[in-house]
Every structure is written in structure tokens, then in C-alpha cells.
Design brief:
By secondary structure, this protein is an alpha/beta fold. It has eleven helices and 14 strands. α4 links the parallel β2 and β3. The structure holds pyridoxal-5'-phosphate.
Amino acid sequence: MEFIRVCEPVLGGNELEYVSECVRDNWISSAGKFVTEFENQFAEYSDCKFGVTVTNGTAALHLAAVALGLGPGDEVIMPNFTMIASAFALCYTGAKPVFVDVDRQTWNINTKLIEEKITDKTKAIMAVDIFGQPADYDEIQIIAKSHGLKIIEDAAQAHGAEYNGKRCGSLGDVGCFSLFANKLITTGEGGVITTSDHGLYDKLRYHKNLCFPLDGPRNYIHEDIGFNYRMPNTLAAIGLAQLEKIDEYIANRRRNGEKYARMLGEIKGVQVQKIKPDNKSVYWMNSIVLEDSIRLSRDEFMDQLKENNIDSRMLFAGMNRQPALIKYGCDPNGDFHVSDRLYERGLYLPSGSNLTDQQVEYVVEKVAAIVKANS
Ligand SMILES: *Cc1c(COP(=O)(O)O)cnc(C)c1O
């Protein structure tokens, strides 16, 4: 059995043809037809009116926070269990992330714990669609509405996922996607922001491009401090080719994810992410959490998988454990026992779009054998 990786990009469509077209026609920078085409098609795919490409998912989150007007003195409530970029992007604006633990079963922000963290400084809630499963947007929207808060959706792991029939990216005021190599679709490095709010769309485009006036004369006079977050046409070309294949990739991930959930669910001693009935996850990553009945540390478990040619990764460390965020002034105190446990006892299993049925079965067979030998 060859080594089974956690994830690798699948470039199975028109990528080479579209990139070649950019090179041949001399359109390799951030103007060009693929940028517009990719933005439009990505927005439509994500049930939104507008799409804005950027250089990466972190930039997408930062730009979204800027466009919403977040800054020093503002607080944003976010899940404690996520990738570090979710929090850093808020810090770039001067706003303060406020952490809330995640739900024990879905691993998304625990909406019951949000209201107690709201103060008169709170301006927004950031929800993260963790591992490809949408957060609880009905609840989040009720809370946001009653306190006048904006919603940033970090959908970096959830391209094409659905909540009550609506695609991720459309579930808050603004949706942020990453196109990094291990995400559902990729441009190598890249990101997209989605929104249906015309005012926000203009602010995103304005701040993305050094605050050059959106219309009017190019007289090199700038009213605000902006960023250069422009995606080049060559990468948008890859993005468009990837988007043409996304339904195929998602179908494969769903088939594998459902199979993993069914088979792993039968192994006593491991927990899998619970997918809510309202949700259609895209199964970005399939993970397990080892219960205490298994007499191996997480690292020992990963070593044994590796001996069987199976790659795995530990899960994210909670935001409450990040020295960078504590130095910045975030409050690490509170009850974060769910995210703590995910960090200490959780790991990803191979989950790429090109994973085969046989590979899933092989991985589960080995997990079961390791559990059995060590319980
Ligand atoms: C990947 C990811 C990001 C950051 O995206 P980059 O393209 O790597 O900058 C942000 N949030 C979450 C939840 C992610 O998974």
C-alpha cells in the first residue's frame, strides 16, 4: 500500500490550458478575463451576488473585517477552535477577538455561549464552518439581529457546503474562502470574499486595491490606507478550472466522508464529528478524537498510523492557548474543555478529493486494529 496523504491538490481539468492562455496572451497580472469570470462564477456558485478575489484566505478575512469597519476598541466573538488566521485577521484591524468554546458534537461555535460574551464593544460574530460543516446560522442570526451585530462567515473549509439549502459564503454579511492547496478547490495560494451587499462589495474592491478610487480620475490621490490583495489572472485561471470540477470533488468527499462516519462510528473509543441534519457538509477533513479508554497518546496513535503508511495530523490548538493572542490582549480564561480535548486527543485522517473507496476502508481497518490492540 502506497503512503496515503492527508490531502493533496487535484488538478484534473482545464488548469494548464487556461494558464497557458494567460501566458500566450500576455495577461498574467491582476487585470484579465479569468479574474472577472472566476469572481462571477464563484459568487453564483456560493449563492451570492458578488465575489472578490484576493491573495489568500487570511487576506480575505482581513479585508472583510476592514470593509465592515472593525477597528481598535471593537470586539468580535469567534470560536476558540479554528485555524489561527481567523483570529489574526481580526487583530490586523486592531479589533479584539473574544473566544467561545465549540459544541461537543459538531465542533462548531457553541451558540449557547455567545450571549454571555457580548458587551457594548461587540461589533460582530465570526462563525467558522469547521471541517466543511456550516455553523448554526439560524441561532447566530437571531443573536446578531437582537444585538445589532454583523456576521463574518469564515468558510475557508466549506466551499459548496449547504445549510438549509443555502451555500456557505452566503450565510452571514460576508463570506471568506481560502484557495490554499489543501482546501476544497485551490489556486495554490488565493482567496475569495462573497457578499450580496453592494456597499460592502464596493468597500472590498476599494481596500483591496490600495484605495484607488473605484471610479473617477486616476490622479494618484488616496483618501484612505488600502492594501494590495490582488489575485493575478494566472491564478484565477486555475481557480476557474477548479470550479468547473468542484461538484465532482465534493461528491467524492461526501461519499468518503459518509463512509468514514458510518464505519468509524462503529469503533468503540473514537469520536467523529457529528453532522447536523440541516447541514450538507463537504467533509473537508475527516477527524477522530480518541477517548480515554484508548491507552495511547495522540502522537503514539499517529506514529502507528504512519507505520501503516497512513498520514495524519493533529488538530488546531485552541485560540486560548496561543501566546501571540494572549500577548495581544485576548482573554485566555474560561471554560474551553471541548477545544482543549480536540487539541489533545484529535487527529485528521486522509481526506483528499482523490481518496478512493479502498483507501478509506484500509484506513478504517487500521484505525480499528490500533484501537483494539490498545483499549
Ligand atoms: C485555511 C484557513 C484560513 C486561511 O487561509 P489561507 O489561504 O491559508 O490564508 C482561514 N480560516 C480557516 C478556517 C482556514 O481553514
